[in-house]
Amino acid sequence: MPLASIQDMFWVAGLVAHLILFFVLWKRARAKDFPYFTALIVTNIVKTIVLNRVRYHGSGNAYRVTYFGFAILDLALQLCVTHELASHVFAPTGKWAPDIRKGFAVVAAFSVLVASLLACLPTPPEKTLLKSILDRGNVFSSALLCELFVGMIAFSVTARLPWKTHVARITQGLGFYSLVGILTESGHSVLGSGTPLSLMLTFVRMTTYLICATYWIVTLWRDPPAPRELPDEMRQQLFTLQRLVAYDLRKLRSLKR
Length: 257
Known about the structure:
Layout: H1 3-27, H2 35-57, H3 60-90, H4 98-119, H5 129-158, H6 165-191, H7 196-221, H8 232-256
């Protein structure tokens, strides 16, 4: 099958997956819980349509400039999604605890440092400066997002904070895709663009994203599991504790009088 036909198949599949995912987010009222994630999906829909038109009706330089603009917007939205997911985990009441915010800031700073170092590694020379910036930017964004998601998961486990089902599913998909992105973009940096192996890595990355999008469609359509009912023994213990606290409060009020 010609290369152009394979690329067209991936583009159509990506557009369909994004449209279905947006429908799920709207129909199941997930968009109000994850507005930045929804904005990211809408941006991807627009990006797919615009880049496809520029690809067939514009110049190669126009395509690279348009791709670069969407890449910056995409990275900004993914960082917003990361903060959005972290807020669901670390600040479910809307307010971050000072130690939690400080710890997450340390994770973010370390992630930026490591991603910058990876992006600065030597790469094969590119024909244009913009292409070189795009390649390094892809490595940086993939590494940064992967480290943020891994750090967020590790930090939440250390702090013993619960994960809501849909938050976990979005994070798992983005984290896995970012991990694959590091591997594929690193391969591009080593092999250069346009080689058969480089094209194969591109198809691997695109296939991975389609798998993640399908995973989000299925998991976000489902309702989260109902909270488990407390055992009778634990309910009785909580009731006894509540009575003891109420008794102590009455004693304190009487002493103040």
